[in-house]
Amino acid sequence: MIALFNKFRTGLLPLYVFLTIFTVLVTLVSCSKDDELEIQNNFPFEVNVMPVPKDVANGQTIEIRFTIQRTGNYSNTQYFLRYFQFDGQGTLQYYNEPPYLPNDLYQLPTEQFRLYYTSTSAVSQSFDVWISDSSGNEKQVTFQFNSSD
């Protein structure tokens, strides 16, 4: 009986060797450095703005509500704002902070925020707000107000 068992085991030796070599080759091929895990951290976004009045009087302040909607979530993404006024005069500020300076870059602490535009002229006013992220994506929102004076 033992002789029969040893003969059967010796006949399976090439199969064991083949399975061992096959397992080693599959392991080496699957652990190749060419298949590195890619982590996406660049997600485009959209900017939504609540409706604002069309007319503004000299000295009047208008609240502008913004929401940044991401297409994905990367926790280290930072958002920035800059603006440029090309018609009329006014100031733009975030809550009670000092007014923004045109073309300067300001970091936004949240993805939902309010800006306050105060008119300082009696003519029509227009300005652009640019919102960008730390990955280089950028969106432009244009505001135009007619003078109600």
Number of helical stretches of at least 4 residues: 1
Report strand order across the widest sheet: 2-9-8-4-6
Overall pLDDT confidence: 85
Q: How many beta-strand runs?
A: 9
Radius of gyration: 32 Å
* Proportion in helices: 10-25%
Structural class: alpha+beta
Cα distance, first to last residue? 112 Å
Descriptive account of the structure:
The chain is an alpha+beta fold and 149 residues long. Helices cover 19% and strands 41% of the residues. The protein has 1 helix and 9 strands; from the N terminus they run H-E-E-E-E-E-E-E-E-E. The protein has one helix at residues 2-30; strands at 45-49, 55-56, 61-70, 79-87, 90-94, 106-108, 112-119, 125-133, 138-147. The strands form 2 sheets. Strands 2-9-8-4-6 form a 5-stranded mixed β-sheet, with no helix packed on it. The longest helix is centred in the first third of the chain and has 29 residues, at 2-30. The protein is rod-shaped. The chain starts with a helix and ends with a strand.
Topology:
Elements: H1 2-30, E1 45-49, E2 55-56, E3 61-70, E4 79-87, E5 90-94, E6 106-108, E7 112-119, E8 125-133, E9 138-147
Parallel strand pairs: 2-9
Antiparallel strand pairs: 1-3, 3-7, 4-6, 4-8, 5-7, 8-9
